[in-house]
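Why should sequence recovery work at all? Because a backbone constrains its sequence more than one might expect. Tight turns favour small or flexible residues, buried strands favour hydrophobic ones, and helices have their own preferences. The token representation captures these environments compactly. In the example below, the structure is given first.
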């Protein structure tokens, strides 16, 4: 998908299709009004016939609009003007892309970027247009031989129009940011959507090496099970014992900042398939457990976005990768394992395995003396019950870091909601036989999971994102979303002084 910024007289734009917005009650937006005037009131006459009122997401494709440079005009309903914000903007963009994909239009100029959605400045509207279009044109094809769901003539290029020449430079930078985020989201989706028999820990390790081949600034190292055993990662390795696939600890380093500057470290849970181990999951929807590596996929995506932009920041991505399957060597409820930190863990439920691989990774990152560590994981079903599938659950004891992450989520449209991480919950993890139990009961399940991780993060600023509700869509529209790559990229842009 190609994107470019266009400016100049909207009526003279040479394009196969020009996308214009219409608010409810036939109210033309600024660019649409300019086209209406240039065409002698043609749009107004069409709208008075009642084919399009302006309801959000409705579209009308017009041919042979007189005295303008475009071949066709696509009118898109934008809803009520007073209620036009980010969500309405996304719906209008998505409707436009869908209409173009079914109309054999491979190129278009979009003027919806000039509608000034409430709360968004021009760079945000440009970035959102790029990421929304990339999202709506994405199709998973890697393991399909007959792609009947893909458009025969898909949209290939979208030019984004800005009305003022002085805004072009800022718009081009926003487009660059948006394209990088879209590339990162696409990579995260591709990894997440691959089945567990293909996307194994070894596959993820090879994907990291491939990323290193594509971007010279990226250094990749993969620790094997012998290396992890030498480091004392008994918790992580206990999870992989039930699988024939060897665990991997994937380390990706982008040293784009000043020498000696403390790095930002992203840690992502890479469970390439989670059957629950001996605490076996129900058969229904177990296929969705290939998405249990979406935390790791998000690290890959954020790394790619940062590499595309060559951000001036020291950034390290860590992905502990494993499978969790039942086997004679697998963890049993009641087993006690020793983590890299030296803390012993009673495994009361083998399906609470994500925290077992993350805790050793979180101890491992101490060696980098990080400025901040953010981990992300499809960690608990409890966070879906608490928050639904709209925001990621955010846990941290650092108020400043929490505000920084929430702001990045608001700016990117990839929101997070902070939940408590109070010491009151820690006693639920008490064990009679080890230093800590790996579950704390039904009450506050996502909170006690974060409390567990917090015991391994005492030496650096840290935040945890529980992305179980946002990383993939279940059911009929099943598939990875690429979240929270937009949030993470915005966080990195801000940290590097670029956003």
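From this structural description, the recovered sequence reads:
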């Amino acid at each position: 998908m190609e994107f470019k910024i266009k400016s100049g007289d909207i009526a003279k734009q040479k394009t196969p299709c020009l996308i214009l917005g219409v608010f409810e009650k036939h109210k033309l937006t600024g660019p649409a009004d300019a086209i209406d005037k240039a065409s002698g009131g043609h749009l107004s006459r069409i709208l008075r016939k009642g084919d399009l009122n302006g309801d959000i997401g409705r579209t009308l494709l017009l041919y042979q609009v007189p005295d303008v440079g475009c071949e066709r005009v696509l009118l898109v309903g934008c809803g009520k003007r007073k209620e036009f914000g980010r969500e309405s903007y996304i719906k209008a963009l998505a409707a436009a892309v869908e209409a173009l994909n079914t109309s054999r239009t491979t190129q278009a100029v979009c003027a919806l970027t000039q509608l000034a959605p409430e709360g968004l400045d021009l760079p945000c509207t440009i970035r959102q247009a790029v990421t929304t279009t990339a999202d709506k044109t994405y199709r998973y094809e890697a393991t399909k031989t007959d792609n009947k769901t893909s458009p025969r003539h898909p949209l290939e290029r979208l030019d984004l129009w800005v009305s003022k020449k002085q805004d072009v430079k800022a718009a081009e930078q926003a487009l660059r940011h948006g394209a990088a985020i879209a590339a990162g989201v696409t990579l995260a989706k591709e990894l997440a959507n691959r089945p567990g028999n293909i996307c194994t820990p070894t596959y993820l390790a090879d994907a990291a090496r491939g990323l290193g081949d594509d971007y010279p600034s990226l250094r990749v190292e993969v620790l094997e099970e012998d290396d992890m055993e030498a480091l004392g990662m008994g918790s992580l390795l206990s999870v992989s014992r039930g699988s024939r696939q060897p665990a991997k600890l994937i380390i990706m380093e982008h040293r784009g900042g000043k020498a000696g500057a403390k790095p930002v470290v992203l840690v992502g849970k890479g469970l390439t398939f989670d059957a629950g181990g001996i605490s076996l999951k129900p058969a229904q929807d177990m296929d969705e457990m290939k998405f249990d590596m979406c935390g790791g996929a998000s690290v890959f995506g954020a790394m790619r976005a940062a590499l595309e932009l060559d951000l001036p920041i020291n950034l390290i991505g860590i992905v502990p990768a494993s499978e969790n399957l039942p086997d004679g060597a697998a963890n049993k409820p009641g087993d006690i394992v020793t983590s890299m930190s030296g803390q012993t863990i009673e495994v009361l439920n083998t399906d609470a395995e994500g925290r077992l691989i993350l805790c050793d990774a979180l101890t491992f990152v101490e060696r980098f003396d990080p400025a901040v560590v953010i981990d992300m994981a499809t960690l608990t079903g409890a966070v879906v019950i608490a928050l639904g599938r709209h925001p990621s659950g955010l846990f941290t004891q650092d108020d400043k870091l929490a505000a920084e992450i929430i702001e990045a989520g608001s700016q990117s449209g990839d929101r997070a909601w902070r939940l408590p991480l109070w010491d009151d919950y820690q006693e639920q993890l008490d064990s009679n036989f080890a230093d800590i139990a790996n579950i704390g009961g039904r009450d506050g399940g996502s909170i006690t999971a974060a409390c567990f991780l917090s015991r391994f993060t005492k030496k650096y600023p840290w935040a945890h994102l529980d992305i179980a509700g946002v990383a993939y869509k279940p059911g009929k529209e099943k598939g990875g979303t690429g979240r929270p790559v937009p949030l993470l990229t915005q966080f990195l842009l801000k940290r590097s002084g670029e956003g």
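A few observations help interpret the result. The longest helix spans residues 168-193.
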